[in-house]
Design brief:
Length: 576
């Protein structure tokens, strides 16, 4: 915000575009030199003068603008905003709709493929990352003028269900499966792979069951439905705790009757080739291995289903853009799928984008479904909540609704612990670290927010601060006789308050950046920096009895922190 004010002044005297000016701005090496520094090197050619010379002239011109002072330092113009002029304006700006909701999406429809766990298998950490990142992107895009549409693309089809049925028929038990669907399914799955090593007939049995399933065999169908139903019940519990909903839950099986059309289309375009009895699309020109479309035994596979899915999202869901929030290990798969679409003449293939993320380990532990060594998400959630509860009991024993707050904090710690990392980074997650109230954590941001709310309550309780009932005005006005902070020329916010206000002004730009880069960590970083800036303000300045501007600043900080937390999927309790 401050940047834009300064940019306007530079723009008026140079003819550069605002965007370029904003990208050139730097922070002065010493805060007392100014609020922002503009390097004049780019102007040397245009004005045929040395950058130092230009800096001198430009500083003179900018300094004449209302509310600005400027000085040259070498090739730089250091600009300082007159605080008494800009503080009221900047504070008011922070709650305006076009500051909070920049419209860069212009109603573009973005289908987000997210979460997408596999039926009859545990909800793994990769799926947790996809869920948490996908949900954050959903909200970030929703706040920036896009129309996001989330789809949970359940892995409910494929040869593994043949194996699952075969194993169930041999060793399964309905009651046990009802009781612990994922645990039992996993046991069956692990046993199947163990025994298949010595008994090759098992593999054939599994393939035969999948063939029957694809051909609509009643028994196979019924067993499959049973697996889907019990698994979904368990996933839904997880989604509820994470506060996640989807616009559509459409598993891979949904596309079963839509794949023949894809195969026909590829054949008609002459793209299908035989290879060892299977059908593939060659992608040499893209330097990619061939994409398998139909297996030797006539069964379809993962890429075929993704082709049908993409076409459906484009045609029926009217997606302008298709995002796939899926682990980086599936990079090749998506390259192939998008390349096949392109070969098939679907120009919108350009609008398909894999949004990958790195591996997450829990205290160094990886996961392998086959061997059954899995970190169970539910256990991680339970533990996080229990630990949060212990910390809260210790910090604030009188807090009401401790259990609810512990849920918000425990779950929040996990979500934030994931999202604060650049999504491509590998994460070694430690619950202990994620839950410290002083570190770079969700609870730290939540705690800062709650602290501000309780300060505000104190401020509101004071007689000289009255809450304005007219919602179009600022929330607070102060009785003009009761404080010596009313004079605008006075230290309205203090240096730390001014630094905090500047930080809040970055929200708009950071939200745009998060949306453009599809990167929730930008918001997490912003929330941490904001919390830190507030805590510095809190340590250095009077707030409750510091006058109207400081209270307004605290209010705006709490509101913007709550916005940032909400975008990431965390609750912002008012007390902790
Ligand atoms: N179920 C898949 C897996 O767990 C992820 C699906 C991702 N989405 C997609 N359209 N392929 O590996």
């Amino acid at each position: 915000m401050l940047m834009r004010i300064a940019a306007q002044a530079i723009l008026a005297h140079t003819g550069l575009e605002e965007k370029e000016i904003l990208s050139l701005f730097e922070m002065p090496p010493q805060p007392e030199w100014g609020d922002v520094a503009f390097p004049c090197f780019v102007l040397a050619k245009k004005f045929r003068k040395s950058p130092q010379h230009i800096a001198l002239e430009l500083a003179e011109l900018v300094g004449h603008e209302e509310g600005l002072t400027a000085s040259a330092s070498g090739a730089y113009v250091n600009i300082t905003l007159d605080r008494s002029v800009h503080i009221p304006f900047m504070l008011a700006e922070l709650s305006k709709a076009d500051f909070l909701n920049p419209n860069i999406g212009h109603g573009q429809r973005v289908v987000i493929d997210m979460s997408s766990p596999n039926i009859a298998k545990p909800f793994g950490i990769g799926h947790l990352r996809s869920t948490v990142i996908g949900a954050a992107l959903y909200r970030i895009l929703g706040e920036t003028g896009y129309v996001p549409i989330s789809v949970n693309h359940l892995g409910d089809w494929g040869t593994q269900f043949g194996k699952q049925i075969a194993a169930y028929k041999r060793w399964g038990n309905e009651e046990q499966l009802q009781h612990d669907p994922i645990g039992e399914s996993l046991k069956l799955y692990v046993r199947f792979h163990q025994e298949a090593e010595h008994d090759p007939s098992l593999g054939d049995e599994g393939r035969e069951w999948f063939r029957r399933l694809e051909h609509g065999d009643a028994e196979a169908q019924q067993l499959w439905e049973f697996f889907v139903e019990v698994s979904l019940g368990e996933f839904d519990r997880m989604y509820q705790r994470l506060n996640i909903t989807f616009d559509h839950v459409l598993g891979e099986s949904f596309y079963n009757d839509k794949m023949q059309a894809v195969i026909d289309q590829l054949r008609a375009k002459g793209l299908l080739e035989e290879s060892d009895g299977a059908l593939v699309v060659r992608l040499e020109d893209e330097e990619l291995p061939p994409c398998l479309i139909l297996k030797k035994d006539g069964t379809t596979i993962y890429p075929t289903r993704d082709l049908a899915t993409a076409i459906y999202r484009h045609e029926v869901m009217k997606a302008d853009r298709l995002l796939y929030v899926v682990g980086g290990e599936q990079k090749l798969h998506f390259q192939q799928v998008f390349a096949v679409l392109k070969h098939a003449g679907e120009a919108w293939a350009e609008q398909c984008e894999h949004v990958p993320f790195g591996l997450m380990r829990f205290a160094g532990k990886k996961m392998s479904t086959r061997r059954g060594k899995v970190v169970k998400l539910e256990e991680v959630l339970d533990e996080a909540i229990a630990r949060a509860q212990a910390i809260i009991t210790q910090k604030n024993p009188d807090l009401q609704e401790q259990q609810a707050v512990a849920e918000d904090v425990g779950i929040g710690a996990i979500i934030f612990g994931d999202l604060k990392n650049n999504r491509l980074n590998e994460v070694d997650f430690s619950l202990e670290e994620a839950l410290t109230f002083e570190g770079e954590t969700g609870p730290y941001v939540q705690y800062t927010h709650a602290r501000i709310r309780s300060l505000l309550e104190k401020a509101y309780a004071r007689a000289d601060v009255v809450v304005n009932t007219n919602p179009s005005d600022n929330d607070l006005v102060q009785d003009s006789h009761s404080s010596d902070f009313n004079d605008v020329s006075d230290e309205m916010l203090g240096d730390a308050g001014w630094a905090l206000l500047k930080q809040l002004g970055r929200y708009h730009g950071q939200l745009i950046r998060a949306a453009r880069q599809l990167e929730p960590s930008v918001i997490a970083r912003f929330a941490l920096d904001t919390a830190q800036a507030f805590n510095r303000f809190y340590a250095k300045e009077r707030i409750v009895d510091g006058g109207q501007w400081r209270i307004q600043l605290a209010e705006q900080t709490a509101d913007i922190l709550a916005c940032a937390l909400q975008l990431l999927g965390l609750k912002a309790p008012n007390r902790m």
